[in-house]
Design a protein that fits this description.
The structure is a single chain. Strands 2-3-4-1-5 form a 5-stranded parallel beta sheet, with helices on both faces. Strands 8-11-9-10 form a 4-stranded antiparallel beta sheet. A two-stranded antiparallel ribbon has the order 6-7. About 50% of the residues are buried. Helix 10 links the parallel strand 3 and strand 4. It is of the alpha/beta class. The protein is about 50% helix and about 5% strand. The C terminus is likely disordered.
Length: about 650
């Protein structure tokens, strides 16, 4: 075989993002089926979890663009859509439950549009059943029949659910201002919205039942990705948990006619803390890539770009060199990257680009060695960006490992860290609980930067569900990051490697695929208890003020009552900007004052003759929620209203 058969200038492994890869045709032609893909395709699993770059978007795009034999509806909220959902609340419901209702509305509209289209296109020769006609009338009456951006659909749905103004006449139900709707027990926004949504969903189910064809074709597959809208705050937490609850409800409610598959980044999913979390275990599938699977991915893409039936021996013996410094090239590349497609594509592409710049017709060993240095710098920077929200101090911590050995004893790392801890606390006062030696080790292990020696090998977070233990003393920088940090030897200087290790410490090194070993307490959110308390108070104030904005209370009373809430919000914001661990007492006092204010304002509104106004009920809900926060019950939507 001559090298000229596979010129490097034709070699192409793909783009960094699945969307571009798909539009170029490479992902469509070279999609690599995985266990996670098969589980989502067949319906065995509905919750696909993976670290950034692990292939979630590729699976989603492939299913949406022909990989699924039935009809699909792809939902990808952008910042504007995410803001609508974060701001959506219903008095009388927790944040999780309220946001599940707006998601259920979106799913119901997609299902309604699907079943009416299906009746027209597939059952057009028959008389349209009455439930399908009713559903079509509902879509027309609520401006949902035409195409619209997700953000606009969310805004319409949020406005109508909050004001109980969905037009349900198509189902024989009058407007929300009916005598029953005005009954005292129905003053809760949440109660009214839930009843309206129940009516809509019953109408969708009736239409599916009337066609009676769900078992003869694939169900509507609703695909939802939401990485773009995630922020590290309680409203984003509620946004995601609400989505999980809504997807499970929709799949059960519409049975064989509709199912949902959600694609969630692993660190987002691991940070969730809500009461029904244990009900999703059987729905989960974690994306995991083996070195062999990544080798197959590389081979498939090389075959497509070179238009040649290459085999592994040819790819790793002629297109690429067979070995790098005595190690097989495929193993060399796999050990120096995290086990995910994006890393593999970037590393391979960088090797190819380096060879082309040097005028080589194929990739040489020297090209791979040069690319290794650049790739390591990329990945170290990318790791800091990936976890910047939860760990904004990572760049400073990475510097502790520069120009030293890749093996670090725990005590040695603690001594290094103590030298910069005071400066980090000054720069990041809200992250004080994360800035301890033990928390730093746990975080670095959890994100895949550090491994730990267990027995005869070094394991990383993806190799074992067990987090790094306090007694585990020997820590190893992942080979991916060693060149960027100039960690060239095991213990610094010329310390020899252990038997069985080479200069890079080659032992049983695994790959991390998602964040493990970091608890879902306040520390997992990267903030102190004091900061969380103030964040909860600020969220409560903002929800109360939004309730005032859509209130029917007299203008003078609204102005009089909302003024003190604005003042509490402003004070909490100022205090939050400087709060540290030592300020827990001050934060607790401020939240307690907010609780008292909400209760006083609620009594005053009732005394003015509006005992059942949603603002008064919201004030009571937020006061109860903040009481629970003060008692330590953080997470899962507390702090955003409760009907309890």
């Amino acid at each position: 075989m001559q090298h000229a058969q596979w010129p490097v200038d034709r070699l192409f492994f793909g783009r960094d993002d699945a969307e571009t890869d798909f539009s170029s045709g490479l992902l469509r032609r070279g999609f690599q089926p995985t266990h996670a893909y098969e589980a989502a395709l067949t319906g065995r699993k509905s919750l696909v979890i993976g670290r950034k770059g692990s292939g979630k978007s590729a699976i989603c795009a492939y299913l949406a663009e022909g990989g699924y034999p039935g009809r699909t509806a792809l939902i990808t909220p952008d910042d504007a859509a995410g803001d609508v959902i974060r701001r959506f609340e219903l008095q009388g419901l927790t944040a999780d439950t309220a946001k599940s209702l707006i998601w259920r509305y979106i799913f119901a509209v997609h299902a309604a549009r699907y079943v009416t289209d299906h009746a027209r296109l597939v059952h057009g020769g028959l008389r349209t059943p009455a439930p399908v006609r009713a559903l079509r009338n509902f879509l027309d009456a609520n401006d949902e029949a035409g195409d619209a951006k997700l953000t606009e659909r969310l805004r319409r749905g949020a406005r109508r659910l909050q004001s109980a103004s969905l037009s349900l006449k198509a189902f024989g139900v009058e407007a929300a201002a009916s005598a029953e709707g005005a009954a005292r027990e129905d003053f809760s926004e949440g109660t009214r919205a839930a009843r309206q949504l129940d009516t809509l969903e019953a109408g969708v189910r009736a239409a599916f039942a009337a066609l009676d064809c769900a078992g003869t074709h694939e169900p509507l597959l609703i695909l939802d990705r939401l990485e773009q809208v995630w922020r590290l705050d309680s409203e984003s937490h509620a946004l995601v948990t609400g989505l999980l609850l809504a997807a499970k409800y929709a799949t059960g409610s519409y049975q064989r006619a509709v199912r949902c598959v959600l694609f969630v980044r692993a660190d987002i999913y691991d940070s969730l803390n809500f009461a029904d979390g244990d009900k999703f275990r059987s729905d989960e599938v974690h994306i995991q890539w083996t070195p062999a699977a990544l080798k197959d991915l590389a081979l498939t893409r090389a075959r497509i770009s070179l238009d040649s039936p290459l085999d592994h021996e040819q790819l790793w013996g002629f297109v690429f060199p067979s070995a790098i410094r005595g190690e097989s090239t495929s193993d060399y590349l796999a050990r120096r990257s995290l086990a995910r497609p994006r890393d593999a594509i970037q590393f391979l592409t960088l090797c190819r680009d380096t060879a082309e710049l040097r005028g080589h017709s194929t990739v040489h060993e020297s090209d791979v060695l040069e690319a290794t240095e650049q790739f390591s710098r990329w990945k170290l920077s990318d790791l800091a960006k990936e976890y910047n929200v939860g760990f904004p101090f990572l760049r400073s911590v990475f510097a502790l490992f520069e120009n030293s050995g890749y093996e670090v004893r725990r005590q040695e790392l603690e001594e290094r860290f103590e030298r910069i801890r005071e400066a980090l606390l000054e720069s990041h006062p809200s992250y004080s609980e994360q800035l301890t030696p033990q928390a730093i080790v746990e975080a670095l292990f959890g994100i895949g930067f550090l491994g730990v020696r267990r027995g005869d090998g070094v394991v990383h977070a993806g190799d074992s569900p067990l987090p790094v233990q306090a007694y585990e003393n020997e820590l190893h920088v992942h080979p991916c990051f060693r060149p960027a940090l100039n960690c060239r030897t095991r213990r610094g200087g010329n310390t020899p490697s252990r038997p069985g290790e080479d200069a890079d410490g080659r032992v049983s090194v695994g790959h991390t695929d998602f964040l493990r070993g970091v608890t879902t307490t306040d520390a997992a959110f990267g903030v102190s208890r004091a900061a969380r308390l103030l964040d909860e108070l600020r969220g409560s104030c903002e929800r109360v003020l939004r309730q005032f904005e859509r209130s029917a209370l007299p203008t003078e009373l609204q102005y009089e009552m909302s003024g003190p809430v604005h003042a509490v919000l402003g004070h909490a914001t100022l205090l939050r900007d400087t709060v540290g661990t030592a300020d827990t007492g001050r934060a607790t006092l401020h939240v307690s004052s907010g609780v008292s204010l909400f209760r006083v304002l609620g009594r005053q509104i009732a005394d003015q003759g509006f005992p059942d106004d949603p603002v008064r009920l919201r004030l009571d809900d937020e006061a109860r929620a903040l009481d629970r926060v003060l008692g330590g019950a953080l997470g899962g939507g507390v702090g955003s209203g409760s009907s309890g």
